Amino acid sequence: MTSTSLNVCQANQENLGKDVGQDRENVYKVRLEPLPMSNRTELFKEVATGGRWAPTSCKPRDHVAIIIPYRDRQKHLEILLLNLHPFLQSQKCHYQIFVIEQAHPEPFNTGYAKNIGFVEASATFNFTCYIFHDVDKIPMNNSLLYRCPPGRVLHFASAEDRFQYRLPYKNYIGGVIGFTPDTFKKINGFANNYIGWGGDDDDIFLRSVYQKVPIEHANNRLGVYRVLNHPRLPGDVYMEKGPMLQFAPQLYRHYGPWDSGLTTLNYTLLATEHRPTYTWIKFNVDQAS
Ligand code: NGS
């Protein structure tokens, strides 16, 4: 059978709309322990080097790049990959997982890492959907389709366990969000100047509002996530982001998001490796940016 005669893929939707009340932990299982090597080989046997997979029995409609900003969270990355590969395969999309690591010693800048992930992933394939994914957020309900609606921001992690399966505040779009490439370019990606932990997600909310890109939260029966615990590390930098966020609406209303973002990246690519279950990209922010 040639690929042109295949039907368009349909995702499995077994948990769609299922009301599990308080019983989420028991209904939606996530794997929290690393697997022994033999089981890993079995689980990942269909995954191509670089962390890419596509269904063979149908024609995928969606081409999804998963972008994970990363630094020093090996155990969490392992757990996320163990869960994410089977999760995405059950959804029958063509996907590739990119892990974007920032070199030491500069403080971690997740907005920068996510923008670089977008640029580097786009250079390899015209993905139709880019999902920016925290390393410590594990999706629990595989009916939450990892797809990007056109012209909107989709916030997937609308029901994290640590926030009692609700948004912690009205404008929260942290954890996991997705865009089509055109929409991501329309808001100029993430701001690059939120250095250290936090704030870039609150900022992209504002960029979306002022670029008139509607924000959609996943239904909270679907956007259910287990969040892995991690203590703040001594090297984690926390910079007060309040003043930047207070000023952002004025900035974006008058000048748009062009001051900082995809169009102002200045980085050195230190490495690209096609590892067995993901593509690893390491970068350094150049001083002048
Ligand atoms: C807010 C942060 C967000 C962050 C959210 C949840 O305070 O970036 O907490 O944080 N905003 C600022 O710092 C301005 S978390 O519990 O994930 O560490 O996403």
Commentary on this structure:
With 289 residues, the protein is α/β, with parallel strands linked by helices. The chain is 26% helix and 20% strand. The protein is built from seven helices and twelve strands. The strands form two sheets. Strands 1, 2, 3, 4, 6, 8, 9, 11 and 12 form a nine-stranded mixed β-sheet that branches. The chain is globular. The model has no long low-confidence stretch (mean pLDDT 92). The chain binds 2-acetamido-2-deoxy-6-O-sulfo-beta-D-glucopyranose (NGS).
What order do the helices and strands come in, and which of them pair?
Layout: H1 24-27, H2 37-43, E1 52-53, E2 63-70, H3 74-90, E3 94-102, H4 110-124, E4 129-133, E5 137-139, E6 153-155, E7 159-160, E8 176-179, H5 181-186, H6 200-210, E9 215-217, E10 224-227, H7 242-255, E11 267-274, E12 279-285
Parallel strand pairs: 2-3, 2-4, 3-12, 6-9, 7-10
Antiparallel strand pairs: 1-3, 4-8, 5-10, 6-8, 11-12
Helix pairs in contact: 6-7
Residues 174, 198-199, 201-202, 241, 245 line the site of 2-acetamido-2-deoxy-6-O-sulfo-beta-D-glucopyranose (NGS).
Uncertain segments of ≥5 residues (pLDDT<50)? none
Bound molecules: 2-acetamido-2-deoxy-6-O-sulfo-beta-D-glucopyranose
Helix content, binned percent: 25-40%
Number of strands: 12
Radius of gyration: 19 Å
Determine the structural class based on helices, strands and strand pairing.
alpha/beta
Overall pLDDT, averaged?
A: 92
- Annotation field: number of helices: 7
Strand content: 15-25%
Main beta sheet, described? 9 strands, mixed
General shape:
globular
Q: In whole angstroms, how far apart are the ends?
A: 51 Å
Order of helices and strands: HHEEHEHEEEEEHHEEHEE
